[in-house]
Structure formats: C-alpha cells, structure tokens
Amino acid sequence: MFYRGKYADGLDGRDMGPKRQRITDQGSSFYGGSPGSSFMYNASPYSYIGQPPPFPVVRLRGLPFDCSEADVAEFFHSLDIVDVLFVHKNGRFTGEAFCVLGYPLQVEFALQRNRQNMGRRYVEVFRSKRQEYYKAIANEVSDTRGGSPRRTAPKAKSNDEGKESAEHTGVLRLRGLPFSASKEDIMDFFKDFVLSEDSIHMTVNSEGRPTGEAFVEFTNAEDSKAAMAKDRMTLGSRYIELFPSSLEELDEAVARGR
Asked: What is the mean pLDDT of residues 138-149?
C-alpha cells in the first residue's frame, strides 16, 4: 500500500512557515504540545510503503558566522526550503541551523551536501527530528523574550542602536521575506506609504532564485525613516527585518543576480 496520510511527526513541511509563527507568537510554553495539524500529505510525487514519511528537517553545523537564509537556500539550491532556523547560545550564533524542506525525500538529497563548502567553510548536514526543531524554536523564543537566565542581549541591542543612528537615504533593505513574496505583498506591507512596483527591487541569486531580500525606494528619507516602524513586523508567516540602505547597495545587490 502507498501511504497518503500525515507525517509521522505530525506536519507537512510546507505547513511549517505559519506553524513556526504561531509558536513564536504563543511563546516557548507552546513547546511540547501536539501539533494537531489536519494538513493531509497528498501533493508529493513520493510515496512511502507501510509507514508514514518522516518530518523533512535537517541540521547543519559549521556554518559561516555571517551566514544568511539566502546562503542556506543557495547551498540547497535544487531543494524546496520551507524554513531556516539559526541556533544561538548566550546571544551568539553557534554556526548551527535547522532547515525544513518541502518533502521528506528531499532530506536524502540534502544529506548529499554533507561536507560541501559554503564559502571557505565545509558544512556538515545531519538528519534531525521535528522534536529537535521545535526545541530549538522554543529556546530561541525564550532567549528573545528574556526567559533564559543566560541570555545576553548586548549584540541585538547594538544592532538596533545601529539602525536608529544610521543615515537614511530613502532606501530600505528588507531581509527574511518569504521566497514566494511578490512586489504586491511588499506594497501591502508598506500600505501607509506611496510606492510603485518600480520602486521595489526583489533580489535573486545567480540562478534566478529569490534570496529572501528586497530593496524599497521611498519618496524621501523621511518616509524611509518612518517606515522603520515596520521593522520585525510580519509579512505572511515571517517577520521582516528592515535596514537603512542606499542606492549603491541596491545597485550592487541587483547586479549580483544578473
């Protein structure tokens, strides 16, 4: 028989975007509860005989400390990336991350990237489980909300202070966009400001795939500064980080994707 039900761990990988946001919204106390998703796994061309397919998540170790979600997407360039969760300890990136994939069979392909290079570093790729991924989410939520006694926030605070003191030129860089985000989605995100599609620039990698970043040109520097109030608000299921930028950085990012 061919299995056409839920994952053994309870959720389809493609459902994890909104699921992770709900976990973040509800706090770390959510961890340990049953996911309870009713999403039926019936869209994948892959079948499992006699048993449910595993939840499609892998763990990465040895990542560069300036690694971004776009770098992980590029590393797994032929796979469907649903979520990337970077692991921190005492406020510092550990060089580890969890990556949720679209389908369970893609885990096998992801494992083939074990010990392949990302920049100058080779990255280890391991099998993981939903419970490990959820625990990492819970730890990140606890750390962000001050639940961990070992939490150290100076790095994040310094980053926020840097944003506040940065000079505004009328251009903002957006990071953490869903890979399916469109210009219309970004215009709706900044619905209180006058924008056109021509003022929004979605960046892509060398293969034409979205990087999860974009640049927005506002009418003036005052508008871009006011738009920073949207920093870390959600677009779809993801929270978006905003950074003051410039036309030079915009042009450079667009050129990299050509």
From this structure: 64
